[in-house]
Design a protein that fits this description.
Strand content: 15-25%
Bound molecules: 4'-deoxy-4'-aminopyridoxal-5'-phosphate
CATH architecture of the largest domain: 3-Layer(aba) Sandwich
Number of domains: 2
CATH topology of the largest domain: Aspartate Aminotransferase, domain 2
CATH superfamily of the largest domain: Type I PLP-dependent aspartate aminotransferase-like (Major domain)
Strand order of the largest sheet: 3-9-8-7-6-4-5
Helix content: 25-40%
Largest sheet: 7 strands, mixed
Distance between the termini: 55 Å
Number of helices: 14
Shape: globular
Number of strands: 13
Mean pLDDT: 93
Length: 443
């Protein structure tokens, strides 16, 4: 619109929408593949067939064992675990699968309180509150923290749950270039003067929202630089650690630990239990005052059924293993393993000539496909060779930036990774996605 192209944007968006709908109909077998097992290193993928001109896919009872390169099961806790699983089964027997009640009625068990104390201790904040769903944690909490008269400055690639929370808050929303602290400063400088006291600004409150590891990019947040900009302009920081908590840092405490940031410098720490902890739900960790305020004012806490007790028990047990409080060194081993696995897989893919996004230590590594038409070829050929991959495209990415998003787990053995690399290399040649020259083998 700045170049006088008013009116074209909706047409382009309409075309993108039309195109992707047609494309997705033809490649629906590459998405929502049913699986019939835990999301471990290997999974049972349910075979599907189509007998009505590719319109509907039907399940069969046959399954195929595939190497799983797509789940967020970063530490391997989503599969049976010698410490977690017996405790989860006991909690299921004791509490059942649901509290059938909201937190302020009968929905708070001793387990919920234990989890909130443990999460606060784990992430290094004074208090925490939990929710039944990670998505809701962002979309319901952001509007409680800020509203009309406030200003949210959000990374351009923040997750949809953050975007929805920001839009629903009624605050003004500005976007800064992805993971670019200088651009964040430019945006802030345009809106407020440096050092201006909070009380003299046109905004009641300013919150900057970023993620620890960006799920479609595999990149680590430039957190130290972002925090120093926020301090300079007296803005609050909100950090979504869905993909980083438990997965990175020497003791699994996420990007703060990895990048040497004091958790006291992050005002609101958000995370989910659906990745490294192999469970479901989400948390906010912050000062005691903020958490007390959320407990008495957030509808998602006051009106929604609390986390399922076995899910709570799963997170408690997983954190205890990570902290070594189960009496073993398995947590430390898992953390070392995911780091080694991720760095090995990423560097081998790069040597083969793939364009891989993201930073070292990140278990998320998108392989660029670019053209969305490469999605079915890449996904189906990998599946034929018993490797299950996740592909992502518009609207989760821009239309011509389709990618395969590989997620590495501590549950993968070296042999698993070598098998995955062999298959991806062959399929990469077939599909034509090795955009760089391969490195010669170093022997
Ligand atoms: N935040 C981020 C950054 C995410 O990637 C996701 C989902 N993967 C969520 C929040 C929502 O979490 P959940 O899937 O646990 O609901």
């Amino acid at each position: 619109t700045s170049k006088g192209l008013k009116g074209y944007a909706p047409i382009c968006l309409g075309l993108e929408d039309f195109y992707t709908r047609r494309l997705y109909l033809r490649i629906q077998d590459c998405f929502s593949r049913p699986i019939a097992s835990a999301p471990d290193a290997w999974i049972d993928v349910v075979e599907r067939y189509s007998n009505d001109n590719n319109k509907t896919l039907h399940r069969t009872s046959n399954t195929t064992k595939c190497l799983n390169l797509g789940s967020y099961n970063y530490l391997g806790f989503a599969a049976a675990d010698e410490y977690c699983t017996p405790r989860v089964i006991e909690s299921l027997k004791k509490y059942s699968s649901s509290t059938c009640s909201i937190r302020v009625d009968g929905g708070t068990t001793d387990l919920h309180n234990e989890l909130e104390e443990l999460v606060a201790r784990f992430v290094g904040k004074p208090a925490a509150i939990t929710f039944g769903m990670g998505y809701v944690t962002n979309s319901a909490i952001i509007p409680i923290l800020i509203g009309k008269g406030g200003l949210i400055i959000s990374d351009s690639l923040n997750h949809n749950s953050i975007v929805n929370g920001a839009r629903g808050s009624g605050a003004a929303v500005r976007v800064f270039q992805h993971n670019n602290p200088s651009h964040l400063e430019e945006v802030l400088r345009e809106l407020i003067a440096e050092g201006q006291p909070r009380t003299h600004r046109p905004w009641k409150k300013i919150i900057v929202i970023v993620e620890g590891i960006y799920s479609m990019e595999g990149e680590l947040c430039q957190l130290p630089e972002i925090i120093s900009v926020c301090k300079k302009y007296k803005a609050y920081t909100y950090l979504d650690e869905a993909h980083s908590i438990g997965a990175v840092g020497k003791t699994g405490r996420g990007v703060c630990e990895l990048l040497g940031v004091d958790p006291a410098d992050v005002d609101i720490m958000m995370g989910t239990f659906t990745k490294s902890f192999g469970s479901c739900g989400g948390y906010i960790a912050a000062s005691k005052e903020i958490i007390r305020y959320l407990k008495y004012s957030c509808p998602a806490h006051l009106y929604a059924t609390s986390m399922s007790p076995p899910a709570v028990q799963q997170v408690i047990s997983a954190i205890k293993v990570i902290l070594g409080e189960d009496g073993s060194s398995r947590g430390a081993q898992k953390l070392a393993h995911i780091r080694e696995n991720s760095n090995f897989f990423r560097s081998e893919l790069q040597k083969m000539g793939f364009e891989v996004l993201g930073d070292s230590d990140s278990p998320v590594m998108p392989i660029m496909l670019y053209n969305p038409a490469k999605i079915p070829a890449f996904s189906r050929e990998c599946l034929k060779q018993n490797v299950a991959v996740v592909t992502v495209a518009f609207p989760a990415t821009p239309l011509l930036l389709a990618r395969a998003r590989i997620c590495i787990s501590a549950a993968h053995s070296k042999e698993d990774l070598i098998k995955g690399l062999e298959v991806i290399s062959k399929v990469g040649d077939l599909v034509g996605i090795k955009y760089f020259p391969a490195e010669p083998p170093n022997h």
